[in-house]
Amino acid sequence: GQTFLNFLISDSMFVPAPIAGTAYGYAGDYIGITSTPEYVIPCWNDNRSGVHQVYCARFGILHVTTPVAAGWNMTSVPIFAPDSSKIAIYPSAISPAYRFENNTYHATDPLRTNRGWWIEFGANENITYVGARIDLMDMVVNSGWNIIGSISTTVSTSTVSPDSIIDSYFFKFENGYVVTDTLEPGRGFWVKTKHDGFLTLQSASSRNPLVAQDLESLDKFTISDANRGAQNLYVANDGFNI
């Protein structure tokens, strides 16, 4: 059980209610689950109201691994985690997680995804973050120096926007400060800005939206209602086992 992770998939208890006339006197006890390389999708039936209903949830299982060194590190949370408390994200850390805001360090818990952190570890190790992918994030910045975070993929600093408020190079910490032109997942970075605002990090894949001709290669489902409203749903099934 040491490799198991618990995820809350519903804020209501599973309560199948008896339905008269059925073979076993009740319905609503079916539970199924499927997955992709990045998500787990559980489904279940529930008829507590007397109406048989199907429920589904989705939660991320993307794994992002980042090395940290013994001593102080600049880190960030590059996924949406099911538990964002400092002890859940960094169980082996030997210090609080500090954010830098208005020229002051602040011990912070829980840890937000749109900031970077100063945090100390007792030994070299790999930190594995597990959760839902982040392809786009607005990092909070204040006038002056800031520690920003990362997303789930490496981002070129040349794509960070708006560049009009950036007033320095980007720096990472590796036995001292080093200028960097890439923002790697799980790391934190110093950058100076001209005024308060946000710096947007976006993955390369999400900057290339699906074009019309790509839809021809996908499975199409048309969903319609009694009022003749309709919507097409396109699904890519490559690599999926359902």
**Helix content range of the residues, please?**
under 10%
- Biggest sheet, open or closed, and with what strands and sense? 4 strands, antiparallel
The succession of helices and strands, N to C, reads EEEEEEEHEEEEEEEEEEEEEE
The global form is globular
DSSP strand count: 21
Radius of gyration: 23 Å
What labels would you give this structure?
globular, 21 strands, single chain, mainly beta, 242 residues, 3-stranded antiparallel sheet, 4-stranded antiparallel sheet
Describe, in plain words, how this protein is organized in 3D.
By secondary structure, this protein is mainly β. It contains one helix and 21 strands. The longest helix is centred in the middle third of the chain and has 4 residues. The strands form nine sheets. Strands 1, 2, 3 and 4 form a four-stranded antiparallel β-sheet that branches. It has a three-stranded antiparallel β-sheet with strand order 5-11-7, with no helix packed on it. It is globular, with a radius of gyration of 23 Å. The mean pLDDT is about 85. It starts with about 30 loop residues before the first strand and ends in a 7-residue tail after the last strand.
